[in-house]
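Researcher: Here's the sequence for the chain we discussed earlier.
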Amino acid sequence: MANSLDAAKQREKMVKKCACDVCGSYNSVPIDCLTAYTGGQEIDVCKECGFVFVSRRRTSKEIADSWSHELFANGESEHRDGEIYTAVRPAIRARLIHILETIDQELGVDGSSICDIGAGEGVFLDYARKLKNPKRVFGIEPSAKNCDLMSQIGIENFAGTIEDYNASSSKEEPFDIAVIQWTLEACADAKAMLKASWDLLKPGGHIVIGTGSRILVPFKKPLQFYISVGEQDTHALRFSPKSIRNILRISGFEPKFMNRYIDNDVMCVVAQKVEEPSTQALEVDDFSEVASFFQRWDKESREHYADWHDD
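Model: Thanks. This is the structure I predict for it:
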């Protein structure tokens, strides 16, 4: 008991209260129905713009360390209830192919240089070089073990965060395309990650964001498979179509393409680097509508899928 209390106190020292990542407001409220899934940790909705986020979180380094040493399949321990993250699963491979084909359709991969930020085991970049004809592929990844895996299959990489890469002597010529797949929602500071992405792109280059389509769309899985126990700041940000466009615009990118997210498990946005952040008004999700959406999702999951589990 004493050890667990000490651990809780230590964690409290590491955690800080964060403003809304999109609009900067501290005017957020917890989504009450979610605490039953998180073990009591709160997930907020911003009352000003409707963004869903964990307002109390650790530093970028601590979150990156959790991913490197706890959540990846080749890390030192397993994730939460025994599930671990790896991109070699068929469903995850499929969504990486979805992003790759979208990039090829909208921008063209042939002859382009591509940087995958949060590259994991290099699965996406391996597909890109085998299926398309990029000039160069490069992975930025905080997990040293994952970087070793990329090196073993001949993929150039940098072990560290994107901020570390931009500050290092390893930084080389800028890229045509930066890809952030199921990673922007897992960082401590999305604006910092997007600013760092802006810095590594050529003028007029493009960023591609891949994430789940979950908020204010038809329910695509039971809520217990979207929200679960564990450190909530490892998935601190949860984007809707409006909020992902908002954060791109205020970070110096102009959205050019968004896929048909309404009935797709994947939400993909392609945006172009521009010289100045947008000053247009934010697209607002009504916070009460967002809270109601999660309440309906909770009710549906409890009534019809409460006993569903992986075999």
